[in-house]
Specification:
The protein has about 450 residues and is of the alpha+beta class. The protein folds into 2 domains: about 240 residues, Cytochrome Bc1 Complex, Chain A, domain 1, CATH 3.30.830; about 190 residues, 2-Layer Sandwich (Cytochrome Bc1 Complex, Chain A, domain 1), CATH 3.30.830.10. The protein is built from 16 helices and 12 strands. The strands form 2 sheets. Strands 1-5-6-4-7-3-2 form a 7-stranded mixed sheet, sandwiched between helices. The longest helix is centred in the last third of the chain and has 18 residues.
Length: about 450
Amino acid sequence: MKVRALRTGLASFAVVVALTGSAVASRGAEVPNIPGERELVVLRNGTRVLLCRDTTSSMVDLAVWYDAGIRREPLERAGLAAVCQRLMFAGSPRFPAGEHLRRVGAMGGDVGALVAGDYACYFQTVPESGLEIVMQLEADRMGTVPIDAAHLELARQALRIERRQPAAAAPLALGLRALYGSAFLQHPYRHPVLADDAAVAALTVKEVQEWYRTHYAPRRALITIVGRFDRARALALAHQYFEPLRSSAGAEPKAPAPDPEPNAERRSRQSINVPFHVVLLGWRGPGAGDPDLAPLLVISQVLSGRDQGRLEHGLKARLASVFMTGGDFEVRKDASMLFCAIGIDQAGDSARAEHELVAEVERIGRDGVNADELDRAKRSIESRLVFDWLPVRTRALALAGSEFFNGDAALVARDLERVLEVTTADVQRASDRWLHGRRRNVAWLYPAAPSSRPSAPRGGQ
């Protein structure tokens, strides 16, 4: 059995399922569509069931998605999403702690959880014969997990251990945390998934109970069933196990207040236990549905693509002190973040490296991209996304993301079409609108020794 706890959204899917906006003109060639026969059924209690049947698959993926991501945390109460995720594995009325994992493992299945900016997901990929068992398991813990002082303390301990794992202390993870913290001042997106010890310790049993009761209610849940299964049997099981569940009374949660528009560059510095410097640049961009998301995704590919990315094959080639480049584009419901990063040898000129990194991004706004570069970027995005639609787990992620962001899982292919329709003028317009200095966030990570702190060529906040 594999047990996975995924901490951040997959940026490729987060982008492609959030592009819906104005109509798209056909490009003449057929755009690939996500495999499988899709259908959405709403149960009497409000739970949505999204089916994608594919007889070519060897397994079936069942996942339950809740509107319980960081976006729903009160600004002064970080950590609720992560705490509730840990509590979901604390046992349920019929199945004690550990029984969920044991039963899925006995089938040779894969089980795990994902907490992201906009949702929480609990999934299991099993043989078709195991579909009823995992439906029982998920239905039994929907809205019924134990939340008391003892279980809350166990969740705190689990988070404390996870924060001390190498992945949580990786330079890119720390840098992204700093970028989100500076880019969002009033929106919960500034919260890290793995909140600090102090924030988690401040949560009370009552606060966790109330947040869980609101956001883990059946009427706020989406169930995806993707892969090999019998449609009639799957729907009968959904009606049998999920439809009798009831949501507690309560008002719908309000959308978080938007952040004000930034008016100056924001900078942060942090010492870490590595023998090199890392600088990340991040620009807060639009949320789901904005027409500039597609060209921003293309810009990210032009900058940070593995094969022909400008950072790897341009900036890194010019500066011998730069040994690592990277970047991505993450889209959430209310906003997005385009970021890029470089690693710099301790003896390198860090101020020059940052200057060159900024210049590389600004060059797109000034000079644009040529037709060949644009076409390579779009084809790379298309290949990656279409390939990732094949496994049932990542296909479920794409479909659920489109349902969350767009209100319709069927829009995934139309969103890909928007990427393929991006023009050089679109790239330049999006760059001018979003990738300027007032929206820029800079996060420096430097070795713990005080003498190793990098110099900075610019001011700002």
